[in-house]
Each structure stands twice: as structure tokens, then as C-alpha cells.
Amino acid sequence: MICKNIAVNEEGHLTFAGQDTTDLANKYGTPLYLMDEDRIRHNCRVYKKAMLEGFGEGSFPSYAGKAACFKRIYEIMREEDMSVDLVSPGEIYTAYKAGFPMEKAFFHGNNKTDADIIFAIDCGVGCIVIDGMDELTAVQTIAASRGMQQNVLLRLTPGIDPHTYEAVATGKVDSKFGVAIETGQADAFVNAALACNSLCVLGYHCHVGSQVFDDADDVYVDSADVMLTFAKKMHEKFGYAPQILDIGGGYGVRYTENDPTVDIAASIRKVADHIRRLCDEKGLPMPNVIMEPGRSIVADAGMTLYTAGTVKEITGYKNYLSVDGGMTDNPRYALYGSEYTVYIANKMAHKADFLCDLVGRCCESGDVIQPDVTVPMPERGDIVAVCTTGAYNYSMASNYNRVARPPVVMLSNGKNYVAVRRETLDDLLLNDL
Q1: DSSP letter string, 301-367
Q2: Rounded Cα–Cα distance for residues 148 and 124 (Å)
Q3: Residue 358 · residue 368 · CB < 8 Å
């Protein structure tokens, strides 16, 4: 099995977090998002322990809430003493209403409006990650008008290509995010920020992308090389050394058996040792380091269950297995060509010899969850499980075709409970006048 929380029981049924998925499908209906709360907590603790041991006190992981955002997630992050990254007023409000301590929140985004900035400050967000010159002026103006000093990080683009999906690569020079170091614009950005008397510049931020596997250590080592070389230059020009270096997130997770496993703790140790050596060589004080795991906190804590519907065999061409969900609850194949592992949960003891495309119910040819999957011969009513769906599934879900979004059910210590209720048909009309 691709994840440690997936197994098969004596009845030949797929289990997730130790619970029979067919029983869960019968109890809650499908489509159904499952989230393994114990796995989420485990993943948080892996990062926290590795960063404490590697970087020391003051360095920490900050959960990237865009991966999965609902109130219970932020309650768990509060209980696990995590920091969080938020990218919109909606994410800020969700964390705020969940009782998350907002002084431990970072507000990201490439186009924060004045209203967004004011809302973040009103909610007590601890640090705003400034994305460019326009935003720098806006945050300074708003903070000055309130007679306060706002903590900020400056987002820079280090020019690193992580060789991942083009759509999730964020650290290249021609990115919509941050200010480029290579062009020299970052020098002026730092100079301008240091001159803002209503801002406290805590340090620098970069993010090279997501789902990084190949030489994952080297991606962050290379980023650190660029960022600390730049920090040395800024120290020489302006006398400023960063208290914080945020190197982003992005460790990959296993979606299929072909994906490698990243040893997060070992990788963090390697990056920490490298940053410490660099700081010594460059005569810079060792900054507190932040990483921003999102996917690697929640992805393998998720599974989606569907009920099989039409099984269509087109002689001489291909077969289709249709389910009662689709791109409305998981658009990642349509967007990125993402790979997934698929099982028929009630037929784990059966031979998998039926090759088909797993498709959804939407009136759209692109509504494909996963092509070319091999499963036991499916029948109407079977329970189909798609693994590793904890990240960017619920958070990217839509009501296309007026399809209601599934519930999120949390699994913990052999028990299960609803964290997000299933949408109803009446919910779909709430904003209609």
C-alpha cells in the first residue's frame, strides 16, 4: 500500500486509519472525503521535531492552509502548536473563527487588496508577507494610519526551477510571485522596505514550488545559497541581516507506487547543516528558519470514496468506470494531469484485471479522475477509493453542474465524526435572489 494508514481487513475490504471504508461509505454516503486526524498530527510532529533538532529554538513549520482549509484543521493546528499560512480573507476568517491564535499566522498572496490588508490587521494576523512594491506602499500606508508597526517578510524569487508541474512552480524569475533577485529589483525592494517606519522587516521569504521529489534536499540547498548570498549583499549595502529566513514548503508525497518516499527529517537536517555553514562562511547571524508544508501535512491523511455507477465497455477501444463524484470534488487531473492510486474498496481480495478510465458524473469530457487504472471487474454499487486526496481536493472543490460538495469526515482513534457537513440542494441556492 502507498500509505501506512491503508490496509486490507479480514473481510477483504479496504481500511483507512484502521476503519473499514465500506462501513464509512454506508454510514455517511458518497462521495465522501475522509481525513485521518491522527496522521495529520503525526505529520505536524515530524516537521516540528525535525526543525527543532535541525535549526534549534525559534525555527518552525507553518502549515499552508490552502492545501485543506476548514475550521477543524485550524483547531488541530492550534492544538499541535503550529503556525499557519493564509492566502485570502476567507482563509483568515476560517482560522480566526476556529480560535487559532492569529499572532502565529502569516498572510501571503500576490495581490492583496487594501481591504484584505485591513481585514488581516483587524483579525490580528502576526505577519504579512509583502509580495512587491505596490503592496509595500499599501501596508506601510495602512499601518501608519493606525499608528502601529506591522511585522512583515519580503517575498523574493530566487530563480530556482524545482522541475515540478509548471503550474505549481513559484520560484522562477518570471513568476507572478515576489520580487526577482536576478534582475536587481530585490535590492531596491529591501531598501524601500527598510525605510518604512511603520513596518518591522523580520526577514525574507521564498517558495520554489510544490511536489518536489528529485533531489529535494538540493532544491532547498540551492534556494538557501541564493537567499543567503543576497542576504550577505544586503548586509553589506544596508547593514541589515534577516531574523527570519522562510524557505517555503513543497516536499513531495506519494500518490502512486512509482513515487519515491522523502525522508523529511533527514532532508531538513541536511538543509539545516548547509544553512548553518553558509551563515558562518558569510559572517551572517543564523536566522530562524520557517518551512511551509501543506500537502505533506494533509495529503496522505486523505481518501475519497465514491459509489460506482455506469460501467461502459467500448469494444476495441477502452472501458469507463463512472462514479458519483468527479472533477467537482477532485479537479487535479484536469488541471495538472495528477496521478492517483485507485482501489475498489469492497473487492480488495479480487484480481485486478479490468483496465479503465475512472471518470466523473459531470457533463464534461474532461471530467476524468484517473485514466488507465486497473481494478477488479466493477459493478454498479461498488465503493471506489481514491487515495492521497487530503490536499487540494476539498479546497479546490466546486459546484460545477450544480453538484453539491461532499462532507469531510475525520477519523481518529477508531472513531469518526463530521467536520464539514455534506452540502444540500438548498445550500446551492443560498446566494440566488
Answers
A1: GEEEEEEEEEEEE-TTS-EEEEES--TTT--HHHHH-----EEEGGGTTS---EEEEEE-SSS-TT-
A2: 12
A3: yes
Dihedrals φ, ψ of 370, to 5°?
A: -165, 125
Residue pair 181/224 in contact (Cβ under 8 Å)? The answer is no
Nearest to 369 by CA among 15, 67, 31: 31
Taking only the tens place, the pLDDT of each residue in 338-360 is: 999 999 999 999 999 999 999 99
CA atoms of 129 and 125, how far apart (whole Å): 11
Q: Would you call 63 helix, strand, or coil by DSSP?
A: strand
CA distances to 27, 301, 303, 358 from 410, rounded to whole Å, are 13, 10, 11, 25
Q: Strands 14-16 and 6-8: what pairing?
A: antiparallel
Report whether 388 contacts 369 (CB < 8 A).
Answer: no
Is 70 in a helix, a strand, or coil? coil
Single-letter amino acid, residue 310 = T
Question: Measured between alpha carbons, how far is 213 from 229 in angstroms, rounded to an integer?
Answer: 25
Q: Write down the pTM of the prediction.
A: 0.94
DSSP-derived 3-state class of residue 212: strand
User: Which residues does the annotation mark as catalytic?
Assistant: 363
State the virtual CA torsion across 174, 177, 183, 186 in degrees, nearest 10: 180
Q: Which residues contact 273 (CB under 8 A, 6 or more apart)?
A: 54
Give the integer Cα–Cα distance in Å for 262 and 219: 13
Q: What is the pLDDT of residues 191-243, one digit of tens each?
A: 999 999 999 999 999 988 666 665 555 788 889 999 999 999 999 999 999 99
**Residue 426 DSSP SS3:** coil
Residue 268: CB atoms within 10 A of its CB come to 26
Q: Which residues 6+ apart lie within 8 Å of 395 measured at CB?
A: 66, 67, 68, 69
Relative to beta strand 354-359, strand 319-323 is parallel
